[in-house]
Amino acid sequence: VSQSRYKLNGTNVRTTESWLKNNDVFEIVKHGGMYRCAGVGGPITGAGGNYLLVDDPIRNAKDAQSPTIRKTLWEWYTSTLYTRQAPNAGICVIQTRWHEGDLAGLLIESMKSGEEYADQWTVINLPAICEKEQEEDPRQIGQALWPEKYNLRFLEKTKRILGSYQFSAHYRDWE
Q: For residue 5, what are the CA distances in angstroms to 2, 29, 30, 162?
């Protein structure tokens, strides 16, 4: 098979002497799909999608404590990302829960409001240590999520070092 048939559209490729970089758009070779990558506030105007993924929209605990940053994130979500959905699109938010008023918190609050047009979300919480039985989690209370990598000893040590706020943000269920 000729390698020339498997290449990216050259409009978004950046080159140096030793590598190629296409970090704005990932095209699927021999298919019509693509993946566009942009940070919160980044260039997505004019782009739409069938699947929109928001991955860790808040960088750290300091930013999460800022009402201005949380408000800016919500405004970006409602005025930019949300309006880029194709009909019947799906949105997935994956994030560290730094604050009750973060993006996930606001989306859950809206869902539970009972408003007629509120989006309904499937919320999946998988804490590092199982704290309660859940239908989507086959573990028993007290079991680690990924014991081969993060066993209970490691998690308990991490909890002592981080403190409850940091540990909850990174490793616990925020329901």
A: 6, 9, 8, 51
CA angle 93, 71, 120 (to 5 degrees): 35
- Other beta carbons within 10 angstroms of residue 133's beta carbon come to 10
Tell me the whole-structure pTM to 2 decimals.
0.76
* pLDDT 10s digits, 26-68: 666 777 777 777 778 777 777 778 899 999 999 999 999 999 9
Residue 39: CB atoms within 10 A of its CB come to: 12
DSSP per residue over 40-61, as a string?
TTSS-TT--EEEEEEE--S-SH
Question: Which residue in the block uniquely carries the two structure tokens 């606001």?
Answer: 106
Long-range Cβ pairs for the range 141-146 (8 Å, 24+):
none
